[in-house]
Amino acid sequence: MRRNHFRAERVAGFLVRVRSLLFPIALLLVAVAWPVAQRLEFEQSIEALYRPDDPVLVDYLESKRLFGGDELVLVAYDDGQLLQPNGLDLTAEAVRRVRELAARLDEVPGVLPQSTRDYATAAGSPLLRLFRGKREVIFELSEGLLVGKDRRTAAVLIRLANPGEGPVSRGETIEGIRRVAAEFDPPAHVVGEPVQIHDLFRFVEEDGERFLWWSLGVLAAVLFVLFGNPRWVALPLLVVIATILWTKAALVLAEARLSMVGSMLNSLVTIIGIATATHVAVRFREERRTRDRVDALRETIADLAPAIFWTCATTAVGFLALLSSRIVPVRSFGTMMGLAAIIVLAAAASILPGGALVVGVGTDPRMNPADRPLSGLLTRGGRWTRLRSGRLLAGALALFAFAAAGVLRLDVETDFSRNFRGDSEIVRSLEFVEKRLGGAGTWEVNFTIPTEPGNASAGGALRNDDLRRVRELTARLRELRRRHPELTKVTSLTDALDSIPTLPFITGTPQRRLEVLRQAEPEMVSNLYAPDPDGDPNTSDGRMRIVLRSIERQPAETKEALIAAVRETAREEFPDAKTTGPFVLLAELISSLLDDQLASFAIAVAGIGLMMMIAFRSVPVGLISLVPNIVPIVLVVGSMGWLGLPVNIGTAMIACVSMGLTIDFSIHFIAGYRRGRERGLSVEDALEGTQQQVGRALVFSTAALVAGFSVLTQSHFIPLVHFGVLVSAAMLGGLAGNLVLLPGLLRWAERGADDRPAPVPATPTVSHPEAERRER
Fewest CB atoms less than 10 Å from the CB: which of 262, 458, 501, 554? Predict the structure, then answer.
């Protein structure tokens, strides 16, 4: 440790000497990085949530290629005078209203007018005019989609251009649709996977930026109360802002694109930056009692540099453990935060020395009214906990065992609407459509349909035997609704083909009925049947799909059971059947979060434990440092299981992230304790001094960060709310664990050490003001 301290003194001396150069360079880099950081883009598509070779994504992209994708949006409204007394035909006023809404939606840039469907158009289709006796079939196909089962809900189904292919951005298209729906009389509701995905990314991105500035404002107020000096309010915030801008600029230069969890960068960088600056401020304030400004800062940096280095390194390891995840956003987030943890070190080294000593008044952090009571409380509390360390550790382990059982009860959140507040527009619209039209979840089963040489333009002739199998599968899927009522609608090509009467020489064969249907409803045919999936219409069998709709707002286990039942049923009839669609992608994504959390947490614990052993050159100390951090994290995560709080995209990383953050408390505490021991203090005196000095810095930084994180509770995006609350809880637990459990563990580790009081060191001499000016 003496060698490390010597190296730290050399680093401290260098940083103090070149502070006048590093500080303006850091400010210049902040100014340069600002416009570059604004170019960082977020991937706003469901595909961005999966790695390119993931089988779930591969099946989905294949379906989009064959059937044009399901970029579908439903605009629905209540119409008290929808149907005529026969229960099949629209009233004249209802026809006028639905056609007016459809026409106005078609004018929105990014909407594909040729794909727009409503019941007035379906009821007046060429197919119905040819075979008027089939009106009931048309109504049955439309019911639950274009007409509600309550006979008073009407809807217009529109298809959006694929992302990046429309004349405007996807966000502008959706805002245009919502504007038309809001201005319509009566006001309409807008739902669909494209809308839900857009809102998810929009809320995350907007709230991430907005709450950064709100949280910095709250932090500024708390820091001013703690240190009473604008300089020591500005410096921690400048470290945070510099780190965020430099990290984002680096990602832009690396041409990285991030998904929704990337917005948590701001919050987590705030934790690392504020904690680092707070430790420097508290220690600098202590050193200023007996030293001039330059010597005080040099000694502060020399003492804290090793701890700050290892806190950044272990934090980076904790985040990099997320690379084990199968989910692309989580892996990219781990890489981004690992980079940010290292950049914090550069920001603090270049900003704090120059900022602390720059010419001006009011350079020192001031004492606050809570300092003396807090110091006394930490002293008394430390003595009390050290006397009862065995019982406290036993109690902590009992709580740990209880919480670990709660981990086994964790579930995942697949109800997409629970990502938003109950009074939000998207949730109100989902509730309306789920109750009136029978579900907003869209998915499918697709399979190979054999053909025989025939109509080359159609890729071969459909065979009666294979269409019979499609009918049987359709019927079996509808029968599933008895066991799975959340499956609300099943639509296949055979439904439409069977509505066409068999007429000799006109519709006598399946292929001729298909041609008639293609002429009458080309959009329906292309949406359900791809005759040449491999691009060779003469030799390839076709690919057909059955479109399903389900209730979106349902528990994870219900969704998983439904998807499994549909997949098993389909493969009994068509062994190569694939189950895919936005409904399946979202369910599969969130279901994998729980396994990822447990795996990444285990890797983080192992990696951080190894780093701690290296940092302190001691296996026992490395292992001891894990205990006060693992226990509170397991308590937080286990409490989620006992309270029935499901894992979502915001809380899936909470264990791994918290481990990377709270270990910083242990590093600073152990480093402070070892400094005391090196200066000749006894175990008890070293622990008591560390409780007062390091403990106060830990309490101050935690108080500031919890206050700053409190603004996240106002987010529109519920996972971000949960993230803020749980990270705050983990940090408070880590603080308690390191102040209550760690001292007793360190005493146990040094139970054979000499515990005699150390001699009182001589009081350092304060430098002459003239020498201080020469040093500056």
Answer: 501
